[in-house]
Design the sequence.
């Protein structure tokens, strides 16, 4: 069956900029209840194992913030009749403290289908925005607008979810008897909103939903059963949307025809041409696609407002005027935020004197930031360029950096997973992404391990590399940049957070940590990194052994809390039925360095070979590993090291990790021991 993707977003703004809300989704059966507690998706259970529901997290937008959800309607189980979307606030916070609270519904291409605004929700802490429901083998949407004063716990309980948090359950129970009085003037539970005319997307009218199809209201106590509230103004919208059934086919006669491009790259001949074109393309799309522009500038302190961008603006600077590559200006509520932009393409490095001049200009003119964009990836605690800041100036200017890989990452997230306002914006982002990924654009991200790469490899081979060698530190820094870029690429494809893990104490100097890694590289000839991928059962480890020329990608899976080791082994081998035959599987046992191991090809007929022979040793988990030869060249060519690392991680995830059970996020290790780098 063709995949049918639908995206919803709960949007809000906050006068103070600090207001927040969380979305939640419930899958309901024909009785209007969840089949089990796992049908309740919220911030601690964001992804369905079958991929039918994904909570994509919070996103800054041009107008405030959004919490976005992606649905694959073809993956929704057949016994699920309705999918309810709600949102809640923390503690004593109420939706009345937010502004422009609304739900938007878009198709997989990002084309808006409808908007549903919530007004006058002053005293409620949770709201049901709407629901998808099955009708004649089609999915339709109904806006609801039901408010709760009992918060997320009360809402979930009313749909049959057992709240594990005792405090939340006690609070919900205590408020149960007062729910009817405390609820806002949204439709009361015993009131059926007046049915308004509804229209299908093809223009044909449809009958209003039957009372049985309405979303179940919160339960009321027996004392309130005979007491009715005064009639309130009906606020439930009744607009339905029928999802499209066909995908438009291209009109080209054959596959050799290529569509016309908004941003051509064939005429780019020099580095200056590439920088000028890349700057203009980036700034124009940022201004025309508010979600994209907001996403790139929110982390730099820019407000959510009207954005305008200008390439190559001349600004006075002593006897010689300066021309930064671009200027970004954002206006909101009469206040102006301005940033100067300096871009580089190909392997060109940022120049300290140039950036210093822009920092001085920004400080004198009252601008807020200088943003640099290049193929390099910034490291924590290690700026790409050294600039001097005049501490005597009252006005402070922030210096920020973007990699072209980060720009492409944000465009991928919006196009493939989160959606934008309309189809024209999707097309603009697709054109931008096509331009950035073209070989001639010069915007390819980090693609060179640096001049120290070959000498370090030679020194490891002939055992002449000594601890304290600064070339080893350069290689460690390049490795960290490469790992961050791999995380960006994989995260953009998956639509999930993929972050490098640094196993150091909180507050540890990044330079000291890298020096320690450089000493280890000199001692054992290995580079290692860990990637935390949202929703996976463990941390993905990448090890580059420069002595043997091998790349190892691996993941450790903890043993289930229930069941027997033999059933664990059989289930693991069954889940890996489509994994590569050369996958190494190792049993992790308590108190020993390692347990039984073998290739998947050998273990498939006999999963019991994974169990310790004595039958008493406790199995704590399993380690899965793939090995491949790594490239030797320092660059990103087909035979290069960078390409081989990226390919190894991608292959391991798509052929191994994707087949493993998805997990609910658990309490992680102490931040004193493990940190995840953003």
Sequence:
């Amino acid at each position: 069956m063709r995949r049918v993707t639908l995206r919803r977003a709960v949007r809000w703004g906050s006068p103070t900029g600090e207001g927040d809300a969380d979305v939640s989704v419930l899958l309901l059966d024909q009785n209007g209840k969840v089949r089990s507690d796992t049908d309740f998706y919220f911030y601690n259970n964001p992804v369905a194992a079958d991929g039918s529901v994904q909570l994509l997290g919070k996103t800054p937008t041009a107008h405030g913030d959004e919490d976005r959800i992606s649905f694959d309607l073809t993956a929704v189980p057949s016994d699920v009749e309705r999918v309810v979307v709600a949102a809640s606030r923390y503690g004593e916070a109420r939706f009345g403290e937010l502004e422009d609270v609304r739900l938007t519904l878009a198709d997989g291409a990002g084309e808006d289908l409808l908007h549903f605004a919530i007004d006058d929700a002053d005293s409620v802490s949770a709201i049901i925005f709407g629901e998808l429901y099955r009708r004649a083998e089609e999915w339709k949407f109904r806006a609801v607008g039901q408010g709760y004063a009992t918060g997320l716990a009360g809402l979930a309980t009313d749909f049959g979810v057992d709240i594990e948090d005792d405090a939340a359950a006690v609070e919900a129970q205590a408020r149960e008897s007062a729910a009817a009085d405390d609820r806002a003037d949204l439709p009361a539970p015993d009131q059926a909103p007046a049915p308004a005319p509804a229209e299908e997307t093809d223009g044909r009218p449809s009958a209003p939903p039957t009372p049985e199809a309405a979303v179940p209201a919160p339960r009321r106590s027996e004392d309130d059963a005979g007491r009715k509230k005064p009639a309130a103004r009906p606020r439930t919208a009744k607009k339905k949307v029928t999802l499209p059934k066909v995908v438009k086919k291209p009109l080209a006669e054959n596959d050799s025809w290529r569509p016309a491009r908004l941003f051509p790259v064939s005429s780019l001949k020099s580095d200056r041409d590439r920088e000028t074109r890349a700057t203009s393309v980036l700034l124009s799309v940022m201004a025309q696609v508010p979600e994209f522009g907001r996403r790139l500038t929110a982390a730099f302190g820019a407000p959510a407002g009207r954005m305008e961008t200008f390439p190559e603006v001349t600004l006075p600077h002593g006897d010689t005027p300066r021309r930064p590559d671009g200027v970004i200006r954002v206006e909101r509520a009469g206040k102006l935020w301005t940033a100067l932009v300096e871009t580089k393409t190909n392997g060109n490095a940022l120049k300290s004197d140039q950036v210093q001049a822009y920092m001085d200009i920004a400080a004198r003119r009252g601008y807020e930031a200088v943003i640099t964009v290049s193929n390099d990836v910034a490291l924590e605690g290690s700026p790409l360029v050294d600039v001097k800041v005049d501490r005597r100036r009252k006005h402070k200017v922030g210096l920020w950096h973007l990699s072209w890989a980060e720009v492409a990452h944000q465009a991928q997230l919006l196009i493939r997973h989160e959606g934008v306002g309309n189809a024209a914006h999707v097309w603009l982002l697709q054109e931008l992404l096509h331009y950035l990924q073209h070989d001639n654009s010069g915007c390819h991200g980090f693609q060179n391990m640096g001049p120290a790469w070959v000498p370090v490899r030679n020194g490891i081979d002939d055992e002449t590399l000594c601890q304290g060698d600064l070339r080893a530190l350069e290689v460690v820094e390049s490795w960290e940049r490469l790992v961050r870029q791999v995380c960006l690429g994989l995260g953009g494809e998956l639509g999930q957070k993929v972050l490098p893990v640094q196993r150091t104490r909180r507050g540890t100097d990044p330079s000291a940590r890298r020096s320690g890694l450089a000493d280890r590289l000199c001692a054992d000839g290995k580079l290692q990194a860990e990637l935390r991928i949202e929703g996976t059962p463990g941390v993905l480890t990448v090890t580059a052994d420069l002595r043997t020329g091998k790349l190892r990608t691996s993941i450790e899976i903890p043993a289930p809390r229930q069941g027997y080791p033999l059933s664990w082994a059989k289930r693991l081998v069954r889940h890996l039925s489509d994994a590569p035959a050369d996958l190494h599987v190792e049993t992790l046992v308590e108190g020993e360095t390692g347990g039984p191991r073998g290739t998947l090809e050998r273990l498939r007929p006999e999963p019991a070979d994974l169990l310790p022979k004595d039958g008493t040793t406790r199995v704590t988990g399993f380690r899965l590993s793939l090995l491949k030869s790594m490239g030797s060249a320092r660059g990103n060519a087909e035979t290069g090291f960078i390409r081989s690392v990226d390919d190894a991680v991608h292959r391991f995830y798509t052929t191994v990790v994707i087949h493993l059970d998805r997990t609910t996020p658990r309490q992680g290790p102490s931040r004193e021991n493990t940190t995840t780098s953003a």
Q: What stands out?
A: The chain is about 25% helix and 25% strand. The CA atoms of residues 307 and 330 lie 4 Å apart. The two ends are 37 Å apart (CA to CA).
